[in-house]
Amino acid sequence: MSKAALPGFRDFYPAEFAERALIFRAWREVARRYAFVEYDGPPLEPLELYTKKSGDEIVGQLYNFTDKGGREISLRPEMTPSLARMVGARANALRKPVRWFSIPQLFRYERQQRGRLREHFQLNVDIIGEADVTADAELLAAAIDIMAELGLGPADVRARVSDRRLLHAILLSLGAAEEQVNAYYGVIDKFERQPRELSHEKMTSLGMSDANVARLFTHLGPTSVQSLRESFPDAAVLEQLDGIARYLGYLDRLGVGEWVVLDLTIVRGLAYYTGIVFELFDAKGELRAICGGGRYDNLLGALGGQDLPALGFGMGDVVLGELLRERGLMTPPSHTAEFWVAAENAERLPEVMEAARALRDAGGSVEYALRSQQLQKQKKAAQSAGAGYFVTLGEGPGSIASIQSLTAASAPSGIESATTIDALCQLLASRTSSESD
RNA sequence: GUGACUGUAGCUCAAUUGGUUAGAGCACCGGUCUGUGGCACCGGGGGUUGCGGGUUCAAUCCCCGUCAGUCACCCCA
Fold first, then answer.
1. Which of A37, A82, A333, A408 has the greatest number of C-beta atoms within 10 Å?
2. ipTM of the modeled complex
3. Beta bridge pairs of residue A420
4. Do A344 and A218 share a structural domain?
5. Does A193 contact strand B, using a CB cutoff of 7 Å?
6. Per-residue model confidence as pLDDT tens digits over A47-61
7. Which nucleotide is nearest to A189 (CA to C1')?
8. Do residues A316 and A423 share a domain?
């Protein structure tokens, strides 16, 4: 028996679990502020749910199998099909726009490398039922606010946005054939990752003139609505630029404008995106995308549901975790005992237990030695466990001989001066009630 | 799926051009000591050197295979 987890799978020891919890907390907190509500679906779905959307090639990248009832099954590689199925089943009953989020664990059978495992947790946030760019702005603002909630700033993370309708109009204005547009998307998607000459060559072989390819290339990378207006004074392009301008204006009003940059190289691999698309990157550009999403207005209809406008993003925990660790922001609070209760001799263990019970009832987090040990030994154990206070019981029932703070930062609540367990419990109880106000 | 590089204790690393019983620090466990605090000292557990084969009197070291990790493709979340 190997002691290691399967390739691409992670063990979450308490230290790693605390990191995961830190990320999840930020996700849920920002989702709450934006009034998204949480849902979940099954981790196993019919294989067909994914082949219908992505074709049979997807099967090579899935954890799929035949179950004991002969059904073709897959672990979910993404959440959107499940979401589409759930929304589709109740499309008429749901209040629009639907604002939902989920934190599924997703699985892909692929060779692992940095930032890419066979399993990850991915926040999915979607808005369904609103076609205007207001929804696009709301969605991206939520993604960016998660970065801020985790302590990252515009200097750490950049949101690059584009619009497939805009790119489509630009390509047509440069003489691209309608049926070749997807092929052009593919080249533009790889623009940053391959030599410029190669991209140029691929574009011309798709039928675009040398001059027009060169014209397009000067606008790939960070750009602005203004410079695109001047360079492509085509009616269809200008109409799309108006939409983008409105979108960027809304992002300013939502307080995230300085994170955002217009960049036509953002295409996203998935064929189903129909409008604004975006990705969040670390500003140094060393890691994979932290988050990606956009508008997929035709997907719900294509999957057999009601045809509703929709948009959403996915944000994985792996790359995000790497960035946070790199920036020294992955410092989850430790969840060690607040109180370690101890007594001089082993005969008093029952009293220690009674004190622990009382403190726990009052909301305290309490540990004590589970075997009889010398007082010094108990204190050492308390320190080693990271307990906040070392409580030594006194002579009388329920009395406290001393309370020592073991951590550098001692609480200012006067806890150390309590002389009985009852008094300490009252302090704890008042703390709990004032916190919940 | 393709290619390159790397695998020694839980972690970070040693081990003479191939040479006795593979070591150290940290961590863990036990003990002694010190009333102001995770100290000091003593002791202990823990390795089929990823795994399998080959060359050799002798392999952690050289060769082959395999598995795993890292990176780049591919693909994307």
1. A82
2. 0.83
3. A399
4. no
5. yes
6. 998 888 777 777 878
7. B76
8. no
